[in-house]
Write a structure and sequence with these properties.
With 510 residues, this protein is mainly alpha-helical. Among the domains are: 110 residues, Serine Threonine Protein Phosphatase 5, Tetratricopeptide repeat; 65 residues, no CATH class; 98 residues. It is built from 26 helices and no strands. Helix 18 runs parallel beside helix 20. The chain is flat, with a radius of gyration of 37 Å.
């Protein structure tokens, strides 16, 4: 390493020795640049024999290739230090360094280096970006160093300002990261530091973040103490505050206290929202308190609180877990009749459970009730219902429901469609099966070879030569027959069946 190069070559924009010192101080490097002091020891008597294999040296004063590559990377991508601005630095960190496979972890070192330049000064945006980046990568020690630097230096707005409300988003993202990681001591410390720095009271959402962290970490007592602190600091709780505490009580199986808090929020003029009800309903159903959960749902209806898709899913899943699938379908029907069922609710899972318990008729009743009330079920729910009806032996109902589906513009998959046609043909209803095929074709359904083979087999079984020949010729026109031998075999089967030369039970082309 020739240090004279960096001193004489003024064309280069970076002092490489300073950058090497910068990156060598990073905790991510595997070894220091300077060798340690030699140890003094005495050789035993007799001295051991030296190994025959030479040991390569492990320490060197020459910078590693990674250091050199990093310096070259900065020279080619980072603007000159005299023209460096917070916006250009953020652009470099976001677009160049962030996704680099080898140097991404040096972003905080570059950030700190920029703060040492006389012509550079970080602003709120650069501090916010760096805090979010450190939080997203779980570098909590570096995050705390960054916040300590912000707290110990004047506000970027002006050197004479030490209290600025623009600092709150920086600290809030950090508090949220500490809470998510369960580091509540750090979260509270950062909260108190921020509270001293900003001009005025923190936003109530800041209090909610800390309180939610305590609840998720299972420390309900500290969450309640922090709630009381809000009152002392004259921070007015909102609906999110109460929802967090209600969730904490439900997680602790203290449903009576959750209900008391639910009533308290009404007295304090804070109207519960759908999250409040969902939290209570989920808590009740999660502990097997089915009646209480359903009662809370109907209280939502009485208060005029809008149901959400999550509300219905919580109710249906809770009832199904207890084996009360019929009650779940009845609840959905009742909510649909009351016009409170959200239009985005997907009943496919409930239909599948009903069909799995051989209750496809109940599923059909529910789906048709939804359809009657203007709530079109999804395609998966309809095809699942057709399959359930078919397996339960209700072929006529399955055929009628399939026809209704297609009239509503819902086309089934080819497997479900062909299986239904086969069942109809096995029941000597090939004419009805072919009528479904024609309807599906008009609606845009693309038939495959299996569809035609099923129908030809059905017509052959019933001795309907004329109808079968029409389909065989249509297959020939659509290039669905592999060879002339297959064509002749199908035609011969239709002719022999029509003439009654062999029993119809033996006819099976598919």
């Amino acid at each position: 390493w020739d240090f004279s190069i960096s001193l004489t070559n003024r064309v280069m924009r970076w002092n490489k020795q300073n950058l090497i010192n910068l990156v060598s101080k990073s905790n991510h490097l595997p070894a220091p640049l300077n060798p340690p002091a030699p140890e003094i020891y005495r050789l035993p008597h007799p001295p051991p024999q030296l190994p025959k294999v030479s040991i390569p040296p492990t320490l060197t004063l020459t910078p590693s290739p990674r250091h050199s590559n990093f310096v070259n990377f900065l020279e080619n991508n980072l603007p000159h230090h005299q023209t460096l601005s917070p916006q250009s630095l953020i652009g470099f960190l976001r677009s160049k360094l962030r996704h680099h496979p080898l140097f991404a972890h040096y972003d905080f070192a570059v950030f700190n280096w920029a703060a040492t330049l006389d012509t550079f000064r970080h602003d709120h945006e650069s501090f916010l970006w760096m805090s979010r980046s450190l939080a997203a990568t779980h570098r909590f020690d570096d995050l705390y160093r960054l916040l300590s630097f912000v707290a110990a230096n004047p506000c970027p707005c002006s050197s004479g300002i030490f209290s600025c409300p623009h600092l709150e988003p920086i600290f809030r993202s950090a508090v949220d990261a500490y809470c998510r990681a369960g580091k509540m001591d750090y979260a509270l410390l950062v909260f108190d530091t921020m509270k001293r720095l900003i001009d005025g009271k923190p936003n109530v959402g800041f209090y909610n973040t800390v309180m939610n962290g305590y609840v998720k970490s299972g420390d309900m007592d500290k969450a309640l103490r922090f709630y009381k602190r809000m009152g002392k600091e004259r921070a007015k709780p909102d609906v999110c505050t109460f929802n967090i505490l209600i969730n904490g009580y439900c997680r602790s199986s203290k449903f009576d206290m959750a209900l008391d808090l639910f009533r308290e929020m009404k007295k304090k003029g804070c109207e519960p929202n759908v999250v409040s009800f969902n939290t209570l309903i989920r808590g009740f159903l999660g502990k097997g308190k089915i009646e209480e959960g359903v009662k809370m749902a109907y209280e939502m209806v009485e208060l005029g609180c809008r149901f959400s898709e999550a509300t219905c899913e919580i109710l249906v899943d809770g009832l199904c877990r207890e084996g009360r699938v019929d009650d779940a379908s009845g609840l959905v029907i009742d909510l649909s009749r009351k016009k409170v069922l959200p239009p985005g609710f997907d009943c496919g899972g409930l239909v599948e459970k009903l069909c799995g318990e051989n209750k496809a008729d109940r599923g059909m009743e529910m789906v048709e009730e939804l359809w009657k009330n203007g709530q079109t079920p999804c395609l998966i729910a309809c095809t699942t219902l057709v399959e359930g009806l078919r397996k339960s032996g209700s072929r006529e109902k399955a055929s009628g429901f399939m026809e209704k589906m297609m009239n509503e513009g819902m086309l089934p998959d080819s497997v479900t469609f062909n299986l239904l046609l086969r069942d109809l043909c096995d029941s000597d209803r090939s004419i009805d099966a072919n009528r479904l095929r024609i309807l599906a074709s008009r609606k845009g359904f693309e038939h495959d070879e299996t569809t035609y083979y099923v129908l030809v087999s059905g017509f052959t079984k019933e001795g309907r030569r004329k109808e079968g020949e029409v389909l065989v010729n249509e297959m020939l026109d659509n290039d669905m027959l592999p060879d002339i031998f297959t064509y002749n075999r199908l035609m011969d089967g239709l002719s022999r069946a029509a003439a009654g030369n062999f029993p119809k039970k033996q006819v099976r082309l598919l």
